[in-house]
TrEMBL record:
InterPro entries: GPCR_Rhodpsn_7TM (IPR017452). This is G-protein coupled receptors family 1 profile domain-containing protein. Keywords: Membrane, Transmembrane, Transmembrane helix. The keyword Transmembrane helix applies. It comes from Eucampia antarctica. The chain crosses the membrane at residues 34-56, 68-92, 118-137, 149-169, 195-221, 233-257, 269-288.
Length: 323
């Protein structure tokens, strides 16, 4: 699948934003982009696998609601990074973007990974707010059943799959395009598609989650809902850090990938790398959670202590939000 336009062919005075989106650099630059992305994606993929396996391997860690959220928050990152690594290796082997079907599939799995991750953050923020609000009011918390828990996660994943399929719906001015010759993503290509992209697609995957999460964090700070001490405070701070990573990593990624910034292909390559690094930073933060950290230490024979259960166990017993 050859690029439809090369940057060397562009007239810089008349080229439009849409031209710059799809125009490819030299083959050498494209190869460097795929090598960089495949390397980062492989590292992120392996880290996601280790984290998920660490949680599921222990009956204690996998029995906790918020650890289940971590698993299904990490899963889209792992899928996104694994498939991106495979795609990049195929492109490196072919010396160009490998296939039209691969283009559609990359667009879908990238969009799914973004959307599922962002909306899982929304779900976590909602559950966390319920926890803190009930604690501040002195209410007794009731555990959410596993059926309710997995139903909510199923809804998030189904929504992400639906939004990611918009490029396949002919009625929508929304298509998968080979951006810069290096990656296929949902993108704009004319005025109508620009309106749909920035006022339909982006709000659906990023805008609404961003507004909700910022609102939740603002309310928590203004109402002083963070406990002054104890396990609940630790858990709240841990997840607030994850939500901040969401804001710091995802928003710049979208901007770097889709905005022109002097038409620099390097900026777009860095935007793709930044979107994968989000997964790595999230995993690193998750490894600081005492029960996960302790279990991992035992697996690698770094500790003989019981684990972080005594640190976070009492909190986890009540963090399933009120039904």
């Amino acid at each position: 699948m050859d690029p439809i336009l090369r940057r060397s062919e562009l007239n810089t005075t008349t080229a439009t934003h849409y031209d710059w989106l799809v125009a490819a650099p030299s083959d050498e630059v494209m190869m460097k982009a795929w090598i960089i992305w495949s390397t980062i994606s492989t590292v992120v993929s392996l880290s996601c696998i280790i984290l998920i396996a660490s949680i599921l391997a222990s009956s204690r860690t996998r029995s906790k609601t918020f650890n289940i959220y971590i698993v299904f928050l990490t899963l889209p990152d792992g899928l996104f990074s694994t498939m991106c690594a495979v795609t990049c290796f195929q492109n490196i082997s072919a010396g160009k973007y490998h296939s039209t079907f691969g283009c559609q599939f990359q667009s879908w799995y990238s969009s799914f990974g973004w959307s599922a991750n962002m909306w899982m953050n929304v779900l976590i923020a909602h559950e966390l707010f319920g926890l803190l609000n009930n604690i501040s009011l002195g209410r007794r918390l009731k555990q959410r059943s596993n059926r309710q828990l997995f139903f909510l996660i199923f809804c998030v994943y189904t929504y992400a799959a639906f939004v990611s399929s918009w490029t396949l719906i002919d009625a929508f001015p929304h298509r998968a395009l080979l951006l810069g010759g290096i990656a296929c993503l949902p993108a704009e290509y004319d005025f109508n598609s620009t309106l749909f992209f920035w006022f339909g697609y982006i709000p659906a995957i990023l805008g609404i989650p961003l507004v909700y999460i910022v609102t939740i964090i603002t309310i928590v700070v203004r109402r002083h809902l963070l406990p002054s001490h104890g396990n609940s405070r630790y858990l709240a701070i841990f997840f607030v850090r994850l939500l901040i990573v969401f804001i710091v990593m995802w928003v710049p990624s979208i901007i770097l990938i889709y905005c022109d910034f002097g038409q620099s292909i390097g900026v777009r390559i860095w935007g793709g790398a930044w979107s994968h690094l989000q997964g790595l930073i999230s995993v690193i933060l998750c490894f600081t959670k005492p029960d996960i950290k302790a279990h991992l230490a035992r697996v690698f024979c770094l500790s003989n202590e019981v684990d972080g259960e005594t640190v976070v166990g009492t909190t986890e017993a009540v963090v399933r939000t009120k039904t």
